[in-house]
Amino acid sequence: MVQRDIDAIAEETSFSGVVRVDLDGQVQFAKAYGLANRTYRVPNRIDTRFGIASGSKGFTALAVLSLIGEGVLDLGTTARSLLGRDLPQVADDVTVEHLLTHTSGIGDYLDEETDAEITDYFVGAAQKLTTTEAFLPLLDGHATKFAAGERFSYCNGGFVVLALLAERASGVSYHDLVRQRVLRPAGMTSTDFLRSDELPADAAVGYLPLDGVDRSNVFHLPVLASGDGGIHTTAEDVSAFWRALFAGNIVDRVEEIIRPRRNVPEESMRYGLGFWLHENTDAAILVGYDAGVSFKSTHDPHSATTYTVISNTSPGAWPIARALMP
């Protein structure tokens, strides 16, 4: 696609966000559209920070995998061995690998297989969710859906459990684990866990339609992200992340991370260890969708091409992503 095509889709859909294309480490296209803050009419910039919802599940996976590389955890480590008496409905045979591949079968506090709307409120007292341990009441009380390893079922709660296991195994908070083991080696200097109730000036407010008015998503999401997603980043940092990952700067044996573990035909994709994968190629994909957030980034390691679309509205990224990404 050329700029006029992207511009046309952006105008037609009132796109708010940033589009970026990199080829072999060089920027081919980067442009910002719409407003980061509608109250004060602050425009998005190419260096604006956006929440990426589940896009940061890949960061959680890498933090866990780096601990595995050091022998602190193992793919076969059971969740129960670190949960103790917490979350009693998590089956005793659920392992780290099951959680990483969405095959654990545990009940999900944010189950995407229901008919819920993106505008619904899910997390209750969002302002209390500032640590991984604070998620325990939300994660508790959900019955097992199927036996561990039986099938793929996307599970947000499973990645919060992963964050909890990583904390308990390492003695380091989840947020610091990601900072130390993913963000720093990737050179992601503009990426961090930001409180939604005190966003800095360079961060976009997420918007969604409520009662006929576009409102902030501050009451819809945890005030501070945990293992299942929500970190804030820039399109430039996303490009830096892909380069660092495939250069081996974050973890070793990247080929094992992006080796397909499950086919997910309903999404026309496959799944590795914390990463979506293209159904026919070796391209790795991060995707995020939540109240006031939409994000997709695809990296093809063979052509060294990265496509990123990041938006501060729920539907915003998809029309351009569908047209742009192979």
From TrEMBL:
GO terms, molecular function: hydrolase activity
Annotated ranges, domain Beta-lactamase-related: 4-316
InterPro entries in the record: AmpC-like (IPR050491), Beta-lactam-related (IPR001466), Beta-lactam/transpept-like (IPR012338)
Cellular location(s): Membrane
Keyword field: Hydrolase, Membrane
An example Gene Ontology CC term for this record: membrane
Gene3D superfamilies per UniProt: DD-peptidase/beta-lactamase superfamily (3.40.710.10)
Main subcellular localisation: membrane
PANTHER family: D-ALANYL-D-ALANINE-CARBOXYPEPTIDASE/ENDOPEPTIDASE AMPH, PENICILLIN-BINDING PROTEIN 4
Name of this chain's protein: Serine hydrolase
